Amino acid sequence: MADNAPVSAGKKPQLLLIAALLAVIAALLLVIAWLLAAGNGEPEASAGAGDTHAAPEAPAVQTAAAEEDLSALQVTAGKGGTKVSPIDGMTQIGYPQTCTGAVAAATNYLNDLDITRITSGEVTTDQFAKLYFDRTRLPKEERDRAVFDDKAFKEAAKIDNTRAIWRPEWGGFKVISCTPGEKADIALLHAASADRKKFTYFADISRMVWVDGDWRYVSSETIPEPVANVPGTTTKRLESVQKEMEEKDGWTRYQNPVE
Questions:
Q1: 67 in a domain, yes or no?
Q2: pTM as predicted
Q3: Distance of alpha carbon 110 from alpha carbon 101, whole angstroms
């Protein structure tokens, strides 16, 4: 039959049916191809935590560190800071804002803020004043507690005196109160010697305040020793003193090795 031969009236319905079936098959093939392509890609996430189109969640609020057992803190005298002050290259700073950090700072400041650092020539009066911290930066309610007598320090600097030795590890500590990252009152039992030979035991409470990202010493108050059998002077650590101290509520000895 020639290409331009007319189609008979009987064949027209058959051709229309075949064309319709072909159109349906083509549509089905397109749908199947689209489904296969979608299956090979990334699955569409439902709205929620993994939906990249969903509104971003607000950042989680940082939770406080686990509550510390104030009667079982582990502190090593002479350690605890994360760096040293650029003022003298010796004084530890950068303490954790925990109560453990407050105890470590209070302990180390016994030595680091001892006035004999000036009298022995270890630091200058100006360096000591800077290490002692700018009192005006303390919270208003703490400024009355702070004592810094610049004149007295300068007078002391004229005295030729031996550098005192502090032995907090011969005693221990007790947390009277502590709010991490705010303030703390730390009781300390320690021994000190001005002549570097005979040591005397002392006890006091140091007020520490968290300012500018670190624990700062504010003031101290002398208190009675927590032990009854304290000798006038000693030349060595006394185990009997520490054992009696540990029998008192809340008092803990340091983690330093026994000498």
A1: no
A2: 0.71
A3: 15
